Hints:
The protein is α/β, with parallel strands linked by helices. Helices cover 20% and strands 30% of the residues. The protein has a single domain (36-147), classed as UDP N-Acetylglucosamine Acyltransferase, domain 1, CATH 2.160.10.
Amino acid sequence: MLKGEYFLTDTITMMIEHGAKVRTNQISTWLDTGTIEATLDTNRILLDRGADNSSEAATRPTVKIVPPVFIHPTAEVDSAVIGPYVSIGANCKISAAVIQDSIIEEGTQIKRAALKRSLIGSNCHIEGQTDKEEASSLNIGDNSSVIHP
């Protein structure tokens, strides 16, 4: 531990010292989440590779689903177009929205907004949009609010 942080190599060394067996493995794809753009691109790959639950999400009567998407079963989505490439976390509330190519973390509320290529943290509140013709790209952290009249 250095300055209160553990580093991956230190953690592996500690595991070996405590008896863990370590081996190498080949990987076919490196999924990067070091930037917002890379995280959104990784979300696309994961949805294409099986994280998609479009068929269950499509049962919502006032929601148009454009696969692939993942909508957590506890999320409330109404009067919206979702997808493609959208992941929506637990306990989100989304209404009168169009969302494409975005990640919406748990507990977030979105009303009357159009979003694309957005990364929205947990427990955020987004309402309205600045341009009715064009979707906005937002990147906001946990517990943030963006409200347009």
